[in-house]
Amino acid sequence: MGKTAAELETSRLNDDCPEIWELDNGDVAIVGRDVTERFGDRLPAGLTIGADERMVVIPGVMLRSAKPDIADV
After folding, report:
1. What are the tens digits of pLDDT across the range 4-29?
2. What is the rounded CA–CA span in Å between residue 44 and residue 19?
3. Does an H or E element contain 22, and which?
4. To 5 degrees, how large is the angle CA 41–CA 12–CA 1?
5. Cα-Cα-Cα-Cα dihedral sign, residues 26, 31, 36, 40
6. Chain centroid to CA 48: how far?
7. C-alpha–C-alpha distance, residues 48 and 28, integer Å
8. Which stretches within the chain are classed as H helix?
9. Please, which residues have CB within 8 angstroms of residue 62's CB and are 6 or more apart in sequence?
10. Residue 4, Cα to own-chain centre: how many angstroms?
């Protein structure tokens, strides 16, 4: 979905590639920097991170570039 990290010039290294893509079942997968420990204790009220979940960060430009690929439902 959207443009690749290389196209957006958001990859710091060759193996540093945040990505957004749609899985075959319609779910969306995101690969980003794991910031769970860094921000886990500063979440907004009502937001929790489950034991099997991680909070990841991707460049904002990457999400905005994917907007045309996200269906309005």
Report:
1. 666 766 666 655 677 888 899 989 89
2. 25
3. strand 19-22
4. 80
5. negative
6. 17
7. 19
8. 5-8, 36-39, 60-66
9. 2, 3, 5, 8, 10, 18, 20
10. 12
| Amino acid in the structure at residue 32 | G
- Structure tokens belonging to residue 5: 């990290």
Structure tokens at 44: 């907004």
pTM value?
Answer: 0.71
Tokens coding 52: 């099997």
Amino acid identity, position 36: T
Assign 50 a pLDDT band (cuts: 50, 70, 90).
very high
In angstroms, how far is CA 58 from the centroid of its own chain? 5
Question: Which of 27, 57, 63 is CA-nearest to residue 39?
Answer: 57
Written as six digits, the tokens of 36 are: 């769970």
